[in-house]
C-alpha cells in the first residue's frame, strides 16, 4: 500500500529515520487526511488530468489545507509544484515549514529538520504576479524544469487564481496542460460572503466551470472550528458528514 | 559639542552593492560642509570618495569596512555609518545596524529592490531600525521611481509612500516636487548646493495633488489631528503631516520615500531634511542590556547622560596612531580621564584620547554623551565588547556570530612577510569576529577562515597592500564536519606497562547523535567505578577527540558521550591514563556509530532576466543545488536555491557568461547538511591525497 521501500532506497544515505517513524507518520496522515475521510477513493484524490478545488471565504484555511495535502503527497514521494499568485517564495516556504512542524510535533518527533530535509526536494515553489500568470507561461516554466530533469510535478497547486476574471478558456488551457503531462491540479477558490450558495452548495459564479472539476470541497469556520465538506467527487454511499479540522494542521481533529 | 538629544541622529546607509550609497554619503558630507570637494567612487581624479578610506575599497569601488563619520545639517548632528553592501561582509552590516537608530535604504531607480536589499531589509527588521528610502540614480536610462515604490510594497512589505515626485527622469532629471510643502525644488550651483524653491510646473500640478493626497491618506493613519483636519476639510500644515509620518516611521509602519540622483547632485538635501524630520533621536529608541549581577536579567537603558556609563564597541581599526575603537554610548557620559570596565575581561581602563570620526580624519572631544558615536584610542578590546562604569555590570546583548564556512591556506614568501602577516592577521581577527586564523600543525600552513570567497580575497589583498606581505594562497577549502548517525557502545581499557610508572584506565558507555549542540558529556557512573577525580580527564579526552574525526579528520559535532562504567588502578591510574582511555574509547565506538560528513549549504539567490531563467536553474541544478522556488517579476525573475558551498567556487564567472552579464547573485550560509555518498567518497580520496602530498 505504501511506497516506503522505494523512498528509503532513494534516500538510503540518510539513516536517522526509522521505518517505524515513517510508517507511523504516513499512516496517521492518511488516517487523518480529511479528503480521504470524506470518502474520496484513492490517495491522490484526483485522477490523472483532474482538477480539484477548495472553496472558502478569506482566512478560513484554503492554502493551509492544500499545503497539508501537498505534505501528504511529498511524504509519499510525489512531487508538488506550488504556484502562488499572492505570496513570495519565502512566505509559501514558511507555510510548509510551519504546518509540517505542527504535524510532526503531534508525533513527538524531535528530528524535524531531518524529516524536512528529506521531503523538501519533492516541492517546488513558483510565484507569479496574478496579472502575469497564464497557462502558456506556466507551461514554458514547466518545460524548463522538466527538460533539464530538474523537477517533474505529480500535482500542481494553484493558489490565488482569479476565477472571477479568468474565463473558461483559461481553465481549459490549464486542463490541456495537466492532461498532456499527466498531472493533477488543485485550486484555491475564494468565495464571497455576499454571494449565497446554490442548492448544490456551489457559489453562482463557480457554476459555469464546476463541470471541469473532479473534486470540490468546502471549508467553513464556525467559532474556533473549521469544518470541511465535500461538494463534488464522491459517491452518495460513501458520503460522510462534515468533519472538524484542527486549524493548525488541517488534519482531522481528535474527537473529544 | 551640542547636547540636545532631540537633535542627534545615528543613521546608517544600507543598500545593494552598486546602488550608489557611497556617492550619496559623499554628497551628504559635501552639502553639510564636512568636505569641500566631491570625488567619485572609482574617480578619475584618483582621490576616490571620502568614506571609502581603504585603498582597496577605492580601487574596487565597493565599501568594505564601515567608516563612521558625522556631520551637521540644519542644527542637527548626524552620525553616519557607511555599511558594506556585499553579503560576504554581513557581520559588518549587522554590527552597524546594532548601533543605529535609523537608516536610509538606498535603492536604484532602475534595478529596484534587488536581492541584497532584501537581505539588508531583513537585518533592519531584526534590529527594528526605522528607515526612510532614497531612490537613487533617477538619471539612469530606464529609471522609474514609482516601480521601485511598488516593489518596496510587494517585495519587502513596506508601506512605502512617495514624499516627492520627480521633475524629469533619465537624461532630463531636473529636480523634485516636495509633496508636503507643495513646491518644486531645483538644485543649482556647480555641485547642486543651491536649492531653488519655486512653484510646481503646471504640467505636474495634477499629479502632485494626487500623490499628495495619497501621502496624507497614508499619514492620517498615525494622527487623529490629521484625520480630523481631512474630515473637516481644514488646512493641513506641513508640521501635521511630518508629525504623523514620523510616528509611523518610528513604528516601522510606514516608509517615506525620497528620490533623486546623488551623482547628478539632485534631491540629496530634501532627503537630509527627511532624516531630521522623520528618523528617531537616540532617546526614542529603547535599548536593552543584560545585567550580569542579576542572573542575566534584561535591563532597559536610559539615554540619561548622568547615569552610569554603558557603551558598546562596534568596530576596531588599526590606524597609524594605534588601535582605534569605535564606540556607541547608550547611557551615561564617557569622559576623557574617566575609568571604565570591559565587562568581558573585567579589566579597568582609563579613557585617554576621545575622538569623533570623519572617515579617516578625526576631531578631539572631551566627552561623548549617551546617544553619541565616537572612537577611543589605545584601548585593548575586541569588537562587541561592552564598557561600563565600575559600579554596574551590564553587557549589551551579544550578537550572533556565524561560524566560518570556508578556509584558505596562505603561503608566505619570506621572513619579512611572516612578521607582516602575523600583525595583519592579529588585527583582522580582532576587527572581524567571522574571520579566524590558525596554523595547521601538520602542514605548517597558516590557514584563514571566513564567510565566503570574496571575504577572504579582500583580507589577502589587504595583507599585500597595507602590510606589504608577499603571500600566495592555496585553493579554498570547505569547512566540512563529521557527525555520527547512530548509537554505539564502547568499553575500552588503556593499559601500558613498559617500565616506569604504568598507565591504567577503563571507560565504558556509549556515543549517540544529538541535533542541537556540538558536544554533550554525561556521567552516569554510580558506585565509583571511575573515581570522581578522573571524570574530568575522561571528558577532556573525549573532547580532544572531537577536534579531528577518526573518519576524515574533520571536526566532529553533534555527539553525546555517556559513560556508565569503568575501572581504575590505585597506582597506575592517572589523568593522563583516563584521557588516553577516553580517546581510545571514542575511536573504538566512532566508526560503529556510522559517521557521515556534513557540508555547508548556502542560500543562493539569483536575479536574472526571465529569458535566462531556464539556464540559471540548470546551472544551479548541476551544482547539486536544490531550487526552492522561482519568483516571476515582470522582466526579471528571482530564483532561490540551496547549494553546497563546495560547488559555488567560480560561480560568478559562469553565471556572467551564461546570462550575458545580466544576472547577479547573493549567497549566505544557510545550514550544514549531509554529503551524499558519492561526494563523500570523492572527499575521502582528496583528503587521502592531501595527506600523502603533505607527508
As laid out across the biggest beta sheet of chain A, the strand order is 3-2-4-5-1-6-7-8
Secondary structure tally, helices of chain B: 16
**Strand coverage percent of chain B:** 25-35%
- Work out the helix count of chain A: 9
Report the uncertain regions of chain B: 60-66
| Chains forming the largest contact | A-B, 33 and 28 residues
CATH top level class name of chain A: Alpha Beta
Total number of beta strands of chain A: 8
The radius of gyration of chain B is 29 Å
Rough outline of chain B = globular
Give the integer mean of the pLDDT values of chain B. Answer: 83
**CATH architecture descriptor text of the largest domain in chain B:** 3-Layer(aba) Sandwich
The main pleated sheet of chain B reads as: 8 strands, antiparallel
Task: Please provide a written account of the structure.
The complex is a heterodimer of chains A (about 260) and B (about 700). Chain A is an alpha/beta fold and about 260 residues long. Chain A has one domain (about 5-245): P-loop containing nucleotide triphosphate hydrolases (Rossmann fold, 3-Layer(aba) Sandwich), CATH 3.40.50. Chain A contains 9 helices and 8 strands. Chain A has helices at about 5-10, 20-30, 35-40, 60-75, 90-105, 110-120, 135-145, 170-180, 205, and strands at about 50-55, 80-85, 125, 155-160, 185-190, 215-220, 225-230, 245. In chain A, strands 3-2-4-5-1-6-7-8 form an 8-stranded mixed β-sheet, with helices on both faces. The longest helix of chain A has 18 residues, at about 90-105. The radius of gyration of chain A is 18 Å and the shape is globular. With about 700 residues, chain B is α+β, with helices and mostly antiparallel strands. In chain B, strand 7 and strand 8 form a beta hairpin. In chain B, helix 6 packs across helix 7, helix 6 (about 200-220) crosses helix 8 (about 240-250) and helix 12 packs across helix 13. The model of chain B is unreliable at about 60-65 (pLDDT under 50). Classes of the chains: A alpha/beta (about 260), B alpha+beta (about 700). Strand 3 of chain A pairs parallel with strand 36 of chain B.
Amino acid at each position: 500500500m505504501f511506497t516506503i521501500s522505494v523512498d528509503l532506497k532513494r534516500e538510503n544515505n540518510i539513516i536517522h529515520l526509522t521505518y517505524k517513524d515513517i510508517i507511523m507518520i504516513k499512516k496517521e496522515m492518511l488516517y487523518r487526511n480529511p479528503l480521504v475521510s470524506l470518502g474520496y477513493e484513492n490517495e491522490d484524490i484526483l485522477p490523472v488530468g483532474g482538477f480539484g478545488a477548495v472553496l472558502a471565504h478569506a482566512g478560513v484555511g484554503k492554502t493551509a489545507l492544500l499545503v497539508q495535502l501537498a505534505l501528504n503527497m511529498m511524504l509519499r514521494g510525489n512531487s508538488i509544484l506550488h504556484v502562488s499568485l499572492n505570496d513570495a517564495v519565502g512566505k509559501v516556504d514558511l507555510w510548509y515549514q510551519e504546518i509540517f512542524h505542527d504535524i510532526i510535533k503531534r508525533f513527538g518527533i524531535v528530528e524535524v529538520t531531518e524529516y524536512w530535509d528529506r521531503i523538501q526536494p519533492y516541492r517546488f515553489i513558483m510565484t507569479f504576479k496574478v496579472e502575469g500568470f497564464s497557462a502558456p507561461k506556466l507551461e514554458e516554466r514547466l518545460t524548463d524544469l522538466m527538460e533539464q530533469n530538474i523537477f517533474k510535478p505529480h500535482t500542481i497547486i494553484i493558489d490565488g487564481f482569479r476565477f472571477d476574471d479568468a474565463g473558461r478558456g483559461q481553465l481549459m488551457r490549464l486542463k490541456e496542460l495537466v492532461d498532456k503531462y499527466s498531472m493533477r491540479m488543485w485550486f484555491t477558490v475564494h468565495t464571497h460572503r455576499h454571494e449565497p450558495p446554490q442548492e448544490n452548495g456551489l457559489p453562482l459564479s463557480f457554476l459555469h466551470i464546476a463541470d471541469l472539476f473532479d473534486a470540490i470541497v468546502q471549508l467553513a469556520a464556525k467559532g474556533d472550528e473549521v469544518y470541511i465538506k465535500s461538494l463534488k467527487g464522491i459517491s452518495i454511499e460513501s458520503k460522510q458528514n462534515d468533519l472538524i479540522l484542527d486549524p493548525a494542521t488541517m488534519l482531522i481533529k481528535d474527537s473529544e | 559639542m551640542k547636547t540636545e538629544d532631540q537633535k542627534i541622529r545615528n543613521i546608517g546607509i544600507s543598500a545593494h552593492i552598486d546602488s550608489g550609497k557611497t556617492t550619496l554619503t559623499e554628497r551628504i558630507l559635501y552639502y553639510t560642509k564636512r568636505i569641500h570637494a566631491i570625488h567619485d567612487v572609482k574617480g578619475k581624479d584618483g582621490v576616490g570618495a571620502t568614506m571609502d578610506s581603504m585603498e582597496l575599497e577605492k580601487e574596487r569601488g565597493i565599501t568594505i569596512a564601515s567608516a563612521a563619520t558625522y556631520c551637521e545639517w540644519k542644527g542637527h548632528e548626524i552620525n553616519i555609518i557607511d555599511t558594506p553592501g556585499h553579503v560576504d561582509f554581513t557581520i559588518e552590516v549587522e554590527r552597524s545596524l546594532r548601533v543605529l537608530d535609523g537608516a536610509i535604504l538606498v535603492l536604484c531607480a532602475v534595478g529596484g529592490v534587488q536581492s541584497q536589499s532584501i537581505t539588508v531589509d531583513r537585518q533592519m527588521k531584526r534590529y527594528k531600525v526605522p528607515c526612510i528610502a532614497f531612490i537613487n540614480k533617477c538619471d539612469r536610462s530606464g529609471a522609474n521611481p514609482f516601480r521601485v515604490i511598488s516593489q518596496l510594497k510587494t517585495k519587502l512589505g513596506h508601506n512605502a509612500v512617495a514624499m516627492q515626485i520627480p521633475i524629469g527622469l533619465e537624461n532630463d532629471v531636473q529636480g523634485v516636487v516636495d509633496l508636503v510643502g507643495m513646491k518644486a525644488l531645483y538644485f543649482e550651483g556647480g555641485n547642486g548646493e543651491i536649492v531653488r524653491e519655486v512653484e510646481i510646473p503646471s504640467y505636474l500640478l495634477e499629479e502632485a495633488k494626487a500623490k499628495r493626497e495619497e501621502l496624507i491618506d497614508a499619514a492620517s493613519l498615525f494622527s487623529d489631528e490629521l484625520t480630523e483636519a481631512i474630515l473637516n476639510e481644514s488646512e493641513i500644515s506641513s508640521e501635521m503631516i511630518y508629525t504623523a509620518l514620523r510616528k509611523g516611521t518610528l513604528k516601522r509602519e510606514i516608509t517615506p520615500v525620497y528620490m533623486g540622483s546623488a551623482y547628478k547632485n539632485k534631491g540629496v538635501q530634501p532627503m537630509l531634511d527627511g532624516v531630521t524630520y522623520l528618523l528617531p533621536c537616540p532617546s526614542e529608541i529603547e535599548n536593552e542590556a543584560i545585567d550580569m549581577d542579576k542572573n542575566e536579567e534584561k535591563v532597559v537603558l536610559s539615554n540619561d547622560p548622568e547615569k552610569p556609563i554603558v557603551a558598546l564597541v562596534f568596530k576596531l581599526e588599526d590606524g597609524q596612531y594605534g588601535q582605534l575603537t569605535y564606540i556607541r554610548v547608550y547611557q551615561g557620559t564617557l569622559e576623557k580621564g574617566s575609568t571604565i570596565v570591559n565587562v568581558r575581561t573585567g579589566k579597568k581602563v582609563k579613557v585617554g584620547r576621545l575622538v569623533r570620526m570623519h572617515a579617516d580624519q578625526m576631531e578631539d572631544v572631551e566627552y561623548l554623551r549617551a546617544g553619541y558615536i565616537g572612537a577611543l584610542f589605545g584601548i585593548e578590546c575586541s569588537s562587541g565588547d561592552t564598557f561600563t562604569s565600575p559600579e554596574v555590570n551590564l553587557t549589551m546583548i551579544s550578537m550572533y556570530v556565524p561560524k566560518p564556512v570556508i578556509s584558505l591556506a596562505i603561503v608566505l614568501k619570506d621572513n619579512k612577510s611572516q612578521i607582516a602577516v602575523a600583525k595583519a592577521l592579529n588585527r583582522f581577527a580582532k576587527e572581524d569576529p567571522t574571520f579566524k586564523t590558525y596554523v595547521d600543525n601538520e602542514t605548517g600552513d597558516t590557514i584563514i577562515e571566513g564567510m565566503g570567497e570574496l571575504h577572504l580575497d579582500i583580507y589577502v589583498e589587504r595583507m599585500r597592500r597595507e602590510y606589504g606581505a608577499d603571500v600566495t594562497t592555496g585553493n579554498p577549502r570547505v569547512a566540512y564536519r563529521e557527525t555520527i548517525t547512530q548509537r554505539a557502545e564502547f568499553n575500552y581499557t588503556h593499559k601500558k606497562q613498559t617500565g616506569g610508572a604504568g598507565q591504567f584506565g577503563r571507560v565504558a558507555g556509549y556515543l549517540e547523535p544529538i541535533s542541537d549542540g556540538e558536544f554533550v558529556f554525561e556521567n552516569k557512573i554510580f558506585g565509583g567505578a571511575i573515581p570522581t577525580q578522573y571524570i574530568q580527564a575522561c571528558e577532556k579526552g573525549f573532547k580532544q577527540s572531537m577536534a579531528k574525526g577518526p573518519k576524515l579528520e574533520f571536526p566532529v559535532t553533534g555527539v553525546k558521550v555517556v559513560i556508565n562504567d569503568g575501572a581504575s588502578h590505585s597506582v597506575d591510574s592517572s589523568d593522563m591514563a583516563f584521557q588516553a582511555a577516553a580517546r581510545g574509547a571514542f575511536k573504538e565506538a566512532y566508526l560503529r556509530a556510522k559517521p557521515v560528513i556534513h557540508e555547508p549549504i548556502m542560500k543562493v539567490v539569483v536575479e536574472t532576466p526571465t529569458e535566462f531563467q531556464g539556464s540559471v536553474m540548470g546551472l544551479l541544478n548541476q551544482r547539486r543545488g536544490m531550487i526552492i522556488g522561482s519568483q516571476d517579476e515582470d522582466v526579471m525573475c528571482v530564483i532561490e536555491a540551496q547549494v553546497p558551498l563546495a560547488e559555488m567556487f567560480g560561480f560568478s564567472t559562469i553565471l556572467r557568461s551564461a546570462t550575458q552579464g545580466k544576472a547577479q547573485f547573493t549567497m549566505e550560509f544557510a545550514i550544514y547538511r549531509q554529503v551524499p555518498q558519492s561526494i563523500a567518497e570523492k572527499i575521502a580520496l582528496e583528503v587521502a591525497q592531501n595527506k600523502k602530498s603533505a607527508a
